[in-house]
Amino acid sequence: MSDERFIARLKTGDKEALRQIYMQYKDMLLTVATSMLRDVHAAEDVLQDVFVSFASGVRSLDVRVNLKKYLMTCMVNRVRDRFRRKHPHLVDIDETDPPGSPMDGPEHSAMADEETKRLTQAMATLPDEQRETIVLHLSAGLTFREIAEMQDISMSTVQGRYRYGLDKLRKALTGEQEP
């Protein structure tokens, strides 16, 4: 179903439309928030805040809005607000639940956990702008143009943040020293 139809249904009070939107976008939004906050519980709180706000303000929403882009912008802004308040509720990397499949064997799971920890630690060393750009592009699947519009910056700035961030990640993960 198109975003326009979902929004039209929401404006008539259709709770099933809200549930369907939530089910469609929650995983992507939660992945982005968790990557930025490095805390699953805080990310879940932000996700809930975003959808409560979305549900209460849907009547004033433009029918032609791109829901993915709109919800992602709301999520990123809520995460930024958390950082601005200086109460990010961050936890130690060992306290987070790494992604994994119960189908994985213990050896594979241990290797995946270690790789996840290394990547998470490396991501934490990046400046916020670079980390946010990488997460929005890789985890949320946003294009550089969409990120530029969302952040109100040029596309070349977004591309630079992405490129420099990936370079820093590569160096951190391979143990190369920065000049």
Give the second-level CATH assignment, the architecture of the largest domain. Answer: Orthogonal Bundle
What is the fourth-level CATH superfamily of the largest domain? RNA polymerase sigma factor, region 2, helix turn helix motif
Number of strands: 0
- Give the helix/strand class: mainly alpha
Query: What's the CATH class of the largest domain, please?
Result: Mainly Alpha
Low-confidence parts: 86-103
Domain module count: 2
What fraction of the residues are assigned to beta strands by DSSP?
under 5%
From the N-terminal CA to the C-terminal CA, the straight-line distance is 51 Å
Q: Mind telling me the C-alpha Rg?
A: 18 Å
Bulk shape: globular
Helix content: over 70%
| CATH fold topology of the largest domain | Rna Polymerase Sigma Factor, Chain: A
Task: Please outline the major beta sheet.
Answer: none
- How large is the count of helical segments? 8
Give me the strand/helix succession.
Answer: HHHHHHHH
Q: Averaging pLDDT over every residue, what do you get?
A: 80
Describe the structure.
This protein is an all-alpha fold and 179 residues long. The protein folds into two domains: 1-92, RNA polymerase sigma factor, region 2, helix turn helix motif (Rna Polymerase Sigma Factor, Chain: A, Orthogonal Bundle); 104-179, Winged helix-like DNA-binding domain superfamily/Winged helix DNA-binding domain (Arc Repressor Mutant, subunit A), CATH 1.10.10. Helices cover 71% and strands 0% of the residues. The model is unreliable at 86-103 (pLDDT under 50).
